[in-house]
Structure formats: C-alpha cells, structure tokens
Design a protein that fits this description.
Layout: H1 2-5, H2 11-20, H3 26-42, H4 48-68
Helix pairs in contact: 2-4, 3-4
Length: 69
Amino acid sequence: MTEALGYEVDDAVIQEAVELFSDKNTSELTTELHSRKIIFQAAGGRGVELADEIDQLRITLAVRDQTSS
C-alpha cells in the first residue's frame, strides 16, 4: 500500500475507507476523486475535510488496484 500511495497508512484507516465507498464502482470513485481535487485546488489547497475525502478516495482506489492485479 505504501508504494501505491507514497506514505504509510494504518490498516484501520484502509478498512474504513474501503467500507465507506463500497457502494461505488471504480469509475465513480475516479470521477469523484478528480472532482474533489479540482475543488481542493480552487480552495487554495485548504480544507481538512476535503483533504481527508481525497485521501479516502485514493486509499480505496489503491486497494482496488492492488486486488485486481
């Protein structure tokens, strides 16, 4: 997981993120991540809640990528 994200993530955080987005397909998650990144950039890189959502999306997509390989 560290290789995919570039940083260490606690197992509990990974599990929480995966469960949070379990009802969405990978395409939806990718679109949502892109949208959140645009909003984050427009906010000048500010917004802890938004940054957390981006991290959760990245984690979920990384897990799905690793399990599909």
